[in-house]
Amino acid sequence: MGDSEKYNEKERMSADIGSPMRDTAAPMLPTVNPDVQKKEPPASKLHPAVYVMTWITLSSSIILFNKWILDTAKFHFPITLTCWHLVFATLMTQIMARTTHFLDGRKSVKMTGRVYLRAIVPIGAFFSLSLMCGNMTYLYLSVAFIQMLKATTPVAVLLLGWAMGIDKFDVKTLINVSFIVVGVVVASFGEIKFVLVGVLYQIGGIIFEAMRLVSIERLLSSAEYKMDPLVSLYYFAPVCAFMNFCVAVVFEIPRIQMTDLHYVGLWTLLANAMVAFALNVSVVFLIGRTSGLVMTLCGVLKDILLVAASIAIWGTPISALQCFGYSVALGGLISYKLGAATIKAQFSEMSRAWAEYGAKYPAMRKAIVFGAVVLFVFIVLGGLAPSVGYDSTYLQSVIKDSDKAQ
């Protein structure tokens, strides 16, 4: 389970920054004092569930928010939107570094100019390309299908790690992750609104994200360079913002008109950047307060909720074949991240707790079982339909026809 936690969603942006590029003779970057030890955060009085729910809410909200701005609000400038997020993050981290203690961890990171140029900059380039491709995908694919495709990110990281000799090849691991690939392939065949361009952009985003994570593992993996997500953002955001701006100024900014900004709303763009930055802050509070098991299950829960939200908000049609394929992919993802031993132990614990609950509350246990059976039958019968979701175009035509008839 330990090695697989690094394959979480890109929004965590935590990294272990290491020493192969380190040059002790190089001058230290400004504001960095290697003699200052990293302070432990004070113990929180809030229950860990509060931090988990906050992370799930913000992580889901930024994905839905981006989709709404880029698609529904017709602001078809994903690279510019990504650049705006990173500029805002750069400003906020600089302000917080000078006014708060949230970024005191940077003082224990021995960042040199050599490490910054030879490690932070190239890794930032991969991160920037990953973000751009990810936002481009929202113009073509539904949120539900995007989440299904993202399930293959750990597979890409694993294969790239094997190819570069960072991880040792393991047949059991390959068989384990093959379930993720098969599930996503089945879900892709079941996708009703399949757009090849969008799929290619998402594949590109997954590849660049895998290159970013593997580069961090190979170039910058040392305990003395360990960063929390906010410190990582402090170093990477300026590089990514500059790279995004260079691309946006060529392909998008000349086409942006004031009507585009007024239509989506300046306050909307500000709120969008604030949610994106708040997500990184929430991860800082979340780390160390939950286990890897909880984080993995919460990530799966978040993906399922996003699929449901996509159906509810945009009427995304989901076929029965797609549901089956995504279920297989999620099962493979959980198995790969947690391992068979952990899953078996958790099932044993759950069985024991369920037996104790049944002995203490037999009537309630029967009611829960009956409700689960009814829900299962409802899901199976619903799967017999060709798709789930409503056709907004069809509904509008029906309403117009009824108005004309009156």
UniProtKB/TrEMBL annotation:
Membrane-topology descriptor: Multi-pass membrane protein
The Sugar phosphate transporter domain, residue ranges: 49-336
Main location: endoplasmic reticulum
Domain of life: Eukaryota
UniProt biased composition (Basic and acidic residues): 1-14
Keyword set, alphabetical order: Membrane, Transmembrane, Transmembrane helix
One Gene Ontology cellular component annotation held by this UniProt entry: endoplasmic reticulum membrane
TM ranges: 48-69, 75-95, 115-132, 138-162, 174-192, 198-220, 232-251, 263-286, 293-314, 326-347, 367-385
Location(s), subcellular: Endoplasmic reticulum membrane
Region (Disordered): 1-25
Purpose of the protein: Involved in the import of GDP-mannose from the cytoplasm into the Golgi lumen.
Quaternary structure (record): Homooligomer.
Family membership: Belongs to the TPT transporter family. SLC35D subfamily.
Protein known as: Sugar phosphate transporter domain-containing protein
